[in-house]
Specification:
Layout lengths: L1 H30 L4 E9 L3 H14 L1 E9 L1 H10 L4 E4 L5 H9 L5 E15 L6 E3 H8 L9 E4 L5 H10 L9 E3 L3 H10 L3 E6 L1 H4 L6 H5 L1 E3 L1 E3 L6 E2 L3 H5 L6 E8 L6 H10 L1 H10 L2 E2 L18
Parallel strand pairs: 1-2, 1-3, 5-10, 6-7, 6-8
Antiparallel strand pairs: 3-12, 4-8, 4-9, 4-12, 4-13, 10-11
Length: 306
């Protein structure tokens, strides 16, 4: 009889714990709205500086807490696919293969383009060259010897910048000689600062929005003007050159929301794509997907009355 009581009590306890955990899951989802609650967002680490600023302003305006998780592009995409209800920031759209994976999972990703970024080439300030031809970089990536390139320095072998240059060069693997990789963009900038002849490849927002500790390094590297595959002119990755499609290494940025309900993913995407978020993009030196409107107040002077 005592054993029966113990079994009954244990069964009741398990059922109570189960219903409590289910209720907690339902409550947490209810507590998260488009402007309230907490969530995590995976971000391509080449885009971290601009997203940190967006999150800071968003959290200041709303009762929301967003944890940014910076990873390489490959890791960010894997996290988006493997974690249910994930949100990610990428420098490319989803491929058809990736969309098919979500379709099999009965998930319809909400994709919001919000800005245009650029891949920048940097060199030591002592470098004699301030210009670089994209065809030379592509040739070097293909394993050919190029006189004015001692080495290329990337942030991470799984990063979006490596994937971007590999796609341009039409290669599956990077050459073993002359191509170096580190952990992040900051380490690339430091390495170029300390070594003549190296060409660093970074997301341009790491140059326009450096951390205080990185300012001296950014100030002492030169951003190179790039000649595209067509034409003879060289262009810096400036906002104006990106807007006029003159800079050859521009790339669109996307928020990929797979939450499946009206949560912070939807609210944050609307914020970044809205007036305040687009002004942050404009101020950062990147190109917003839409130019924020400017309001002018016309004041009549006394001379106007005459």
């Amino acid at each position: 009889m005592k054993n029966s009581s113990k079994i009954l009590f244990f069964t009741f306890f398990v059922l109570l714990a189960f219903f409590y955990s289910c209720n907690q899951g339902t409550t947490s989802k209810k507590e998260e709205t488009i402007l309230k609650g907490s969530t995590s967002i995976f971000v391509d680490e080449t885009l971290t500086p601009i997203m940190e600023e967006q999150v800071a302003v968003f959290e200041n305006e709303y009762e929301a807490k967003i944890k940014l998780i910076s990873k390489s592009e490959a890791e960010t995409v894997n996290s988006l696919i493997n974690e249910k209800g994930a949100i990610a920031i990428l420098s490319r759209n989803l491929t058809q293969e990736e969309l098919n994976i979500f379709k099999q999972k009965k998930i319809n990703p909400k994709i919001t383009p919000f800005a245009t970024d650029a891949v920048a080439f940097i060199a030591n300030k002592n470098s004699k060259d301030s210009l670089i031809a994209l065809k030379d970089v592509i040739s070097f990536m293909q394993g050919k010897s190029i006189a004015n390139i001692k080495g290329l320095v990337f942030d991470n072998l799984n990063s979006s910048t490596v994937r971007y240059l590999k796609d341009l060069a039409g290669i599956q693997e990077i050459p073993q000689k002359g191509v170096f990789s580190f952990k992040n963009n900051d380490e690339v900038i430091r390495h170029v600062y300390e070594n003549d002849g190296m060409i660093g490849i970074v997301g341009v927002n790491w140059l326009s929005q450096p951390k205080p500790a990185m300012q001296k390094y950014v100030d002492n590297v030169a951003t190179l003007s790039v000649k595209g595959l067509n034409g003879d002119n060289y262009f810096l990755p400036s906002q104006n050159n990106i807007a006029e499609k003159k800079y050859p290494l521009a790339r669109d940025l996307y928020i990929i929301n797979c939450q499946g309900f009206s949560g912070l993913g939807m609210g944050f995407a609307s914020f970044v794509g809205g007036d305040v978020g687009q002004r942050i993009i404009l101020k950062s030196g990147l190109l917003p997907i839409r130019i924020p409107t400017r309001k002018f107040t016309i004041v009549k002077s006394q001379n106007d009355k005459k």
